[in-house]
Design goal:
Layout lengths: L6 E4 L5 E4 L2 E3 L17 H8 L1 E3 L2 E8 L3 H4 L15 E4 L8 E8 H7 L4 H17 L3 H7 L3 E6 L12 E3 L3 H5 L10 E3 L12 H20 L1
């Protein structure tokens, strides 16, 4: 609940916090989980209700050695078939930690999500092995993982998807100007409000800095 001079934030547990200003720094698509009183302006509400989270998942495969580097590869594998859409080498050689980050996205991810957890893991490992040569020594090394960690962003309660929310055709042109606009004493600093690097840590940090500066400037005036 927000007024001219104060904002009251009530949690699901009934706790109430009072402040002069509030910064909302969550994905735009999750604003619908908050009851704003008075409601958000029509343009802001139109933007929020038309924003969809990405269908995305990330898996980290850790190995005893960087077999792809030893084979002269950079660890960037891509496929339009999936489940491996693309991968990145995220190894830390100083700590002898050798890992590939695997990303599953879009329609491929939607189908992959229908599998049970073990089948999802196996599908990624087998596809990676197929990309480097299913019956080759590299295929064998790709299967020989030490650890498998996976995050399915579509199942994250406070995110709903990733790596960022998306608007349909023409929506950014029509409602984009209200993306960063404050509503009274409520300011918006989620990653999608960044001018650059939306969906990445850099974008989240700069968006937060911008929103914080807005608050500081208004409280100082």
């Amino acid at each position: 609940q927000h007024s001219k001079n104060e904002v009251h934030v009530k949690t699901n547990s009934g706790m109430i916090y009072k402040a002069k200003k509030v910064i909302v720094a969550i994905p735009t698509n999750t604003y619908t989980n908050i009851q704003f009183t008075p409601p958000l302006p029509a343009t802001k509400k139109a933007l929020v209700t038309r924003t969809k989270p990405g269908v995305y998942a990330k898996a980290i495969l850790t190995y005893s050695s960087p077999w792809w580097r030893e084979a002269g590869l950079v660890g960037k594998f891509e496929s339009v078939i999936g489940p491996v859409c693309f991968s990145l080498d995220i190894s830390d050689l100083s700590k002898q930690q050798y890992s590939l980050a695997i990303f599953v996205a879009g329609k491929v991810a939607a189908e992959w999500h229908k599998l049970d957890e073990l089948a999802r893991e196996q599908a990624i490992i087998e596809h990676l092995a197929a990309l480097v040569g299913e019956n080759s020594c590299l295929g064998t090394k790709a299967r020989n993982i030490l650890e498998f960690n996976m995050v399915e962003w579509t199942k994250e309660e406070y995110i709903g998807g990733g790596p960022t929310s998306a608007l349909g055709p023409g929506m950014l042109k029509k409602f984009g100007t209200v993306l960063r606009e404050p509503v009274g004493n409520i300011h918006f600093g989620g990653g999608e409000t960044a001018y650059e690097w939306k969906g990445y840590m850099e974008g989240a940090v700069t968006a937060g800095q911008r929103a914080a500066k807005e608050v500081i400037d208004e409280l100082s005036s």
